[in-house]
C-alpha cells in the first residue's frame, strides 16, 4: 500500500483506517472527541528540510451527517513548504478533528489550508478524557512521527481534493462538497467504517478489524 499517494480510493481508505486505529490503540484520541466531531481528516505525509523541497502526502476526509453517521470519504493530497523545522527527511501521520461546522465547510472546498480562518491546536489525549471543560478549538490535531506523539506543527499544510481519485470512485462531476454532504454511496471499502465505530466506542466487526495491516504506519517508522 502506498502511504504517500494512490490513485485508488479503497487503498486511501484502508490507509486511513490503519492510521486512525494506530492512534486509537494507543488511547491518544478520546472517544468523546470523535463522537462530537463534525469531521475528520486522516493522512500521512513526508516532510523535508527546506532545501530538499517541502512536504507531500495524501489521505481522506469524512464528515458527520445529520443522522449522526459518517459521510463517504473524499480523497485529498497534502503539500506544504513550512511544516516545522526538520533536518533531512521525516514522515508523519496526522488526524485533524473538525469541531465546528465552519471548519468542516472549509474542508468541503477543493483546496484549504490548515489554520486558514480556523484556529488549530493539539487535541486532548487519553482514551476516556472529559472534554466538557476543554477550550474546544475549531480544529484539533493529533500527530506522530517516528513513534512519538505530538510536537509536530501542521499550520499552513494545504489539502487539495484529489479529483481524479474521487472521479474514479464516484463518477464525473462529483465534488468533495457533494461527497461530504452524503449525496453518494460509500465505496466498497470495509476497514474505515469499522475503525470509525471503535473510535466512538461502538461495536464493530472483529473480522474486518483483524484484517487491518499491522505494519507500522509512516509515523511509527524509525530510522
UniProtKB/TrEMBL annotation:
Pfam entry (one): Ysc84
Matches recorded under CDD domains: SYLF
Gene Ontology MF term list: phosphatidylinositol binding
Coiled-coil zones: none
Domain annotation Ysc84 actin-binding: ranges: 80-197
PANTHER family: DUF500 DOMAIN PROTEIN (AFU_ORTHOLOGUE AFUA_5G07310) (PTHR15629:SF8), SH3YL1 PROTEIN (PTHR15629)
Protein's name according to its UniProt entry: Ysc84 actin-binding domain-containing protein
